[in-house]
Amino acid sequence: MNTTGNRYSRQLPLFGREGQEKLADATIFIAGAGGLGSPVATYLAMAGIGELIIVDDDLVQESNLNRQFLHTNRNIGMRKVYSAAETLAALNPDLTITAIPERITELTVENQTGDADILVDATDNFETRYLLNKTAFQSGIPLVHGAVEGFSGQLTTILPGETPCLSCLFHKAPPERDTPVIGATAGVIGSLQAMEVIKYITGSGRLIAGRLLIWDGLSGRSDYLTLSTRPDCPVCQTDHEEDCP
Fold first, then answer.
1. Model-level pTM greater than 0.85?
2. Count of CB atoms situated within 10 Å of the CB of 107
């Protein structure tokens, strides 16, 4: 990837040529090409990430278009990962995109995540989130979790061996339902997830690790909760070998 042109001239003063080269050498796994996946993938592509692995088994529907800006009207009925790849390639032709139109399962997750440097949870279901959490700890690579509902969202970066995990935070999955959401909410949380990835890869700033960011769009307020390890957690406590919830 070309890291010397004008494309990155406005961000090079922030982390230098070395940081830009680290981005170009990085492979990022994104679970989901929807509301969160759109801003995450877009801003990582524009920042000069070398490779994005995007996994989603869904098709573009009209109801997605209030928030999933990787897709347009003409992509309705198309696999989301292929629609996303088309959009992202137009944004940055130097980007390598691995588009996987599959569901993430216990049997597939290891191959899907491949040699990724960091995992991004841009999904909308806890079954997949728990799988990503478990994979992150087994592989020893970070996981950036994000979730949205209505005008609110949350975010944390999980560092295996250093922070509590997603299973500590959510002891069991809440009931699944169609969650209302406005596009701007997904845009805020997805952008923050992309920022976490960029900070981690370039070694910039302080990660939102060991803390949960709660963002309330209606009040314009952000709060942080300090996370605690669950003593009987089957994922991040090595004395326990049972499967995740």
1. yes
2. 8
